[in-house]
Amino acid sequence: MNQKELYGFGPFTLDPVERTLLQEGKPLAVTPKAFDLLLYLVRNHGRILTKDELIRNLWPETFVEEVNLAVNISTVRKLLGEGPRDGRYIVTVSGRGYRFVAAVQEITVPLERASEEAQPPLLVPPEPPDTISEDPAAASASIMPDIADESHLPTNVVHPARRNEPRWIISAPLSWFCW
User: Fold this and answer.
1) Could you give the number of structural domains in the chain?
2) Computed from CA positions of residues 159, 162, 165, 171, in that sequence, does the dihedral angle turn out positive or negative?
3) What's the gap between Cα 163 and its chain centre?
4) CATH code assigned at 83
5) pLDDT tens, N- to C-terminus, the chain (179 residues)
6) What pTM value is reported for the model?
7) If DSSP codes are grouped into helix, strand and coil, which group holds residue 107?
8) Residues 167, 160: contact at Cβ < 8 Å?
9) Crossing angle, helix 66-79 and helix 32-43, to 10 degrees?
10) What contacts 74, CB < 8 A, 6 or more positions away?
11) Structural contact between residues 142 and 136, judged by C-beta atoms closer than 8 angstroms
12) Is residue 78 situated within a structural domain?
């Protein structure tokens, strides 16, 4: 399969492969179950989806209360910026279920090459000095800049020893050290 499907509605784009919801190109934080619910609603837009059908498809082989569905519907509505009575995207059909009413555009885009095909950058060690010194300090100075000499640092970097703020190290869970 060389293509993937996206769904566009209003300012939103839903990507089932990447499991992302974008609003005007910016990703929104979506819980997995809320994403599944939104995807099911969008794929079945215009149709009344009964509460039983939604529960059966979103929580297969699991007993859940209707309140779980209601909580996730509320979560999706908040993500889309609507209240329970707005009806721009999700309409409650009293006594029956829910319907996704926004116009949905199905978009097909080519898949990008798999990330595992990309080669990681090679790390190149520094070139050895032209001459070998018998003095270890001189040899290390030719490879590493002097730590006290900050000329090799960008001008907008503050050396940690120059900061007048506490330094914290997280060593182990629930352990804090300051110097």
Assistant:
1) 1
2) positive
3) 33
4) 1.10.10.10
5) 578 889 999 999 999 999 999 999 899 999 999 999 999 999 999 999 999 999 999 999 888 899 999 999 999 999 999 877 788 899 999 889 999 999 999 988 887 643 333 344 444 555 555 555 566 666 555 555 555 555 554 554 444 454 455 544 444 444 444 44
6) 0.60
7) strand
8) yes
9) 80
10) 84
11) no
12) yes
Question: What does the DSSP 8-state code read for residue 115?
Answer: G
Residue with tokens 């990681």: 120
Closest to 166 measured CA to CA, from 155, 153, 178 = 178
CB proximity list for 167: less than 8 A, separation 6 or greater: 160, 178, 179
Q: Domain range holding 80?
A: 3-108
The answer to whether residue 118 is domain-embedded is no
For residue 4, how far is the Cα from the chain centroid?
19
Hey, what's the torsion of the CAs at 67, 72, 73, 77, to 10 degrees?
140
Question: Residue with structure tokens 């319907």?
Answer: 99
Is 98 inside a domain boundary? Answer: yes
Is residue 91 domain-resident? Answer: yes
